[in-house]
Amino acid sequence: MIVLDTNVWLFWLHDPSRLGKRARSAIRRATAADGARVSVISYWEVALKSSLGKLRLPMDIDTWCARARSYPGVSIEPLGVEDAIASTRLPGEIHRDPADRFILALARRLAVPLATADEKLRAYAHVETIW
Fold it and tell me: pLDDT tens digits for 75-116?
């Protein structure tokens, strides 16, 4: 099982060639075993960036979300109280971006690697990352 950061999830859905070799291989294995997880906060992040014009999707956000939800091998992880609290108690140094903090908290709770292209997250010593 792995958690997909928002950027990796978008690459996987739209342009897998942008993924690092290790990430692409890990995602293939995880999706084949129904083990890829995406935080619901990633849906929020995509919708927000799309509404602000910072992310162009090939279709309207509602259609995009419906299609993304049906992608094989990927499950949506809800944002729970445990993750919300844990996001405020992450050990070590990490920036304040709430979406990243929730995603890190999810990977820590599930005790699985995080697939991410984000250099700041890859440098975070308290979660195994894949790129």
Answer: 999 999 999 999 999 999 999 999 999 999 999 999 999 999
pTM of the model: 0.96
User: What ranges do the domains of the chain cover?
Assistant: 2-130
CA separation for the pair 42, 31 (Å, rounded): 17
Comparing CA positions, the residue from 12, 20, 66 lying closest to residue 37 is 12
Q: Is 4 left (phi over 0), alpha (psi -120 to 50) or beta?
A: beta
Non-local (6+) Cβ contacts of 95 within 8 A are 120
- The closest of 52, 44, 42 to 7, measured between CA atoms, is 42
Q: pLDDT tens across 29-46, in order?
A: 999 999 999 999 999 999
Q: Give the homologous superfamily in CATH for domain 2-130.
A: 5'-nuclease (3.40.50.1010)
